[in-house]
Write a structure and sequence with these properties.
Helix 3 packs across helix 6. 38% of the residues lie in helices and 13% in strands.
Length: 302
C-alpha cells in the first residue's frame, strides 16, 4: 500500500473528509458560500422604522380614545353639563353683541350722514362763493320757477326750514329770520376748518351784524358734539356772535349736511343766492356780505 492511500477505520465505511465550519465553497453561480454556519435573518432599517411608526400610531390612537372617553364621562357629570351650558351661553352672548354693534353702526351712519333727497340743497365748488344765476330778461315769469336750485330761476329757490334752539334753550326756526339777509353757517367745535374761520366770522358779525343775520348753527350730536362742548369752545375763544344748536338734526336733514363747515347765503325773501363748502377766510366772507347787500338793494321781482 502506498503512503498516499488511506484505509477505512471500519470495514465497509467510506472515508469522509470533514469540511471546517468556516470553509467556503463556491455555489452554482460561482460565489463562495459558507457551509456549516446556521442561517440567521436580519431586519432591515426600513422595516424597523415602519414597525416603530405603527407602534407610535397605536399609542397615539389609544391616548385620543382615552381622552374622548374622559371628556364624555366629564360631560355626563353635573359639573360638565354646567360648563357646557356656560359655553353655549357665551356663544349666544357674543352673537348678540355683534348684532347690536352692527345695528348701532347703521343707526350712527343714518344720523351722521343724512341722505340728501330731491328737496334738499346741493352746491358744488369750494374755491369761491357759488352765486346762483338770475334771469336777466325783464319779462321773466317768476311763477315758472321749478325750485330746483339750478338755472335762471335759482334765485327763487327757498331755503328749507328747520328748527333749532338758542343759548337759552328757546326754540326757533330759520323762517323766523325772514325779512333780513342771512349768513347761515354749520360748524362743530371738533372741526379744525370750522375753528379756522371763526375769527373772521366774529369780525364780520361785529361789522355787519346790524344788517345781516348771522345764524351760526352748531351740529350738535354730530360725531359726539354736545351743546356744552360748543359753549366751552365759544367762551374760551371769546366769540360773541349768535350761536344756535341743531340738537334734533333738523338742520342737518333739511340741508343734507354730511361735512362741515358749510355756509349758505339767504336773501331777505328767504331764498338761497349762494353757498360755500369749506373754511372761509375774510375775503370770502366779505364777498358773501356784498352779495347779500346787493341782493337786498335790488327791487324784488314782481
Amino acid at each position: 500500500m502506498s503512503e498516499n492511500e488511506k484505509t477505512p477505520t471500519d470495514a465497509g465505511t467510506p472515508v469522509e473528509t470533514e469540511i471546517a465550519a468556516d470553509e467556503q465553497t463556491p455555489d452554482a453561480g460561482g460565489q463562495a458560500t459558507t457551509k456549516g454556519a446556521p442561517a440567521t435573518a436580519s431586519a432591515t432599517p426600513a422595516a424597523t422604522e415602519s414597525s416603530a411608526a405603527e407602534q407610535r400610531g397605536e399609542v397615539i390612537g389609544e391616548r385620543l380614545a382615552a381622552l374622548e372617553a374622559e371628556e364624555k364621562a366629564n360631560a355626563a357629570t353635573p359639573e360638565g353639563e354646567k360648563a357646557d351650558r356656560k359655553k353655549h351661553v357665551g356663544v349666544i352672548v357674543a352673537a348678540v353683541v355683534f348684532a347690536v354693534l352692527l345695528i348701532g353702526a347703521g343707526v350712527a351712519y343714518s344720523v351722521l350722514a343724512p341722505t340728501v333727497d330731491d328737496k334738499q340743497i346741493e352746491v358744488t365748488g369750494t374755491d369761491a362763493v357759488q352765486e346762483t344765476e338770475v334771469d336777466a330778461t325783464a319779462d321773466a315769469d317768476v311763477s315758472d320757477d321749478t325750485g330746483d336750485g339750478n338755472g335762471a330761476n335759482a334765485a327763487t329757490t327757498p331755503a328749507p326750514d328747520f328748527t333749532m334752539t338758542d343759548a337759552d334753550g328757546a326754540t326757533l326756526t330759520l323762517a323766523d329770520f325772514k325779512g333780513k339777509p342771512v349768513l347761515l353757517n354749520f360748524w362743530a367745535s371738533w372741526c379744525g376748518p370750522c375753528a379756522s374761520e371763526m375769527p373772521d366770522i366774529q369780525s364780520a358779525w361785529e361789522e355787519h351784524g346790524n344788517d345781516v343775520e348771522f345764524v351760526i348753527v352748531n351740529m350738535t350730536d354730530m360725531n359726539g358734539e354736545t351743546e356744552q362742548s360748543a359753549k366751552v369752545f365759544l367762551a374760551e375763544n371769546n366769540y360773541t356772535f349768535p350761536c344756535y344748536f341743531d340738537a334734533n338734526n333738523s338742520a342737518a336733514t333739511a340741508f343734507g349736511v354730511s361735512s362741515i363747515p358749510q355756509t349758505y347765503l339767504i336773501n331777505a325773501e328767504g331764498n338761497i343766492i349762494g353757498a360755500y363748502m369749506g373754511a372761509m377766510d375774510a375775503s370770502v366772507i366779505a364777498q358773501g356780505i356784498d352779495m347779500l347787500a346787493g341782493d337786498t338793494a335790488a327791487p324784488a321781482a314782481q
